[in-house]
Amino acid sequence: MLSNLPASVPDLLRLLALPVFAWVAVLDVRTRRVPSAVWIPLGALGAALLAWDGWVAYTADLHAWQSFLIPTAFSVGFVVPLAYLFWWFGGFGGADAKALLVLALLFPVTPSYGIGDWAFPLVGGDQLLPFSLAILGNGVLVGLAIPVALGLRNALAGRFTPIAPLGWPTAVDRIPHRHGKLLQTTDGYTLSGLDLDALRMYLRWRGATFAELRAEPDRLRDPETLPDEPNPPTDGAIDAGPPVADGGEVESIDAVEQTGRDEADFSAEPTNGDPTDADPSGVEFDDPWGAAAFLDSIEGTAYGTSPDDLRDGLDVLASEERVWYSPGTPFLVPLFLGLLVAIGYGDVLISLMS
To answer: Measured between alpha carbons, how far is 45 from 12 in angstroms, rounded to an integer?
Structure first.
């Protein structure tokens, strides 16, 4: 069917990006990790098509050359540095930045596809702006719709809290199998709680399971119980492997049985108790949970986690039966949807402004 489409060969080859972006979007949801190697062939394809289109435009006429050169220069000279800056300041993950860089190479100029009497994209937008910027803008709009959907979901369940647009409550036993962040501390709600990947890094590092954290919080708060030779913390991925217990036996992180309770069962607020309430023993340690020792011994920052963040999150997880958490927004999903919308409809933001 593609051979019958009135489109240039480079534009048809650009459609190869769609299944790849669909796949990495699924990976982003399931694991929050995308192999770096996936971007190499797409980047090479984008560079080759860029050279192909450039040669065709250059040998055509001045208008065609200008129509190619201006958006391409904007795409490579603005969108690529923008992706790098977002990554540098923590607004993007590494995969998000690489995906946007690849899109800047693959879609500098608005492509054109036709099926029967239909021409896609349906709206052209500003031909001087790069098409990659339209994809990014569409992705941002899709991403902004996610908090609205979460807020409605919680409202329908009778949960009216300041953080309702960001997440939902779930049984604490499900936390080891979730990506995202806690949205509560021992003092109440928060927008920047413990990163769950950092939690898994900590447990693997000290050779403890989530079941032990729940069953023996008083013992694990004592930094004297830290292993003499900690285990590799991994990167916190759910499927990175089980922790090694103190006795040298491998224990599954699934040691706690699933409760079978859905997050919709919970509508109560956090306890908002005093932090000392989480430690019935009343014993004070210089480094509760060994949080500072863990962060000092690993490379990097464990996703920006501070010792206080880790201690507070562990206190919450050790004492609560349900917790508010946010799965975050895996940006490759809105970016993929933004790509689909851009190819099918065009630049939504420019269309609205027009």
So the answer is: 12
CA 213 to chain CA centroid, nearest Å: 26
Residue reference for tokens 């108790």: 273
Assigned fold of 2-145+331-353: Four Helix Bundle (Hemerythrin (Met), subunit A) (1.20.120)
DSSP state of 116: T
0.70 surpassed by pTM: yes
Distance, in Å, from the CA atom of 318 to the CA atom of 210, rounded to the nearest integer, reads 9
Nearest Cα neighbor of 174 from 323, 29, 31 is 323
First to last CA, the chain: 34
Q: What per-residue confidence (pLDDT) applies to 183?
A: 96
CA distance 190 to 204: 25
Token digits of residue 347: 């630049």
For 250-301, how does the pLDDT look when each residue is reduced to its tens digit (9 = 90+)?
343 333 333 333 344 444 455 444 444 444 455 678 899 999 999 999 988 8
* Residue pLDDT, tens place only, 288-341: 999 999 999 998 889 889 999 999 999 999 999 999 999 988 899 999 999 999
Using DSSP's 3-state secondary structure scheme, residue 89 falls into coil
Query: For the chain, which residues make up each domain, given as ranges?
Result: 2-145+331-353, 167-326
Q: How many CA atoms lie within 13 A of 200 on its CB side?
A: 23
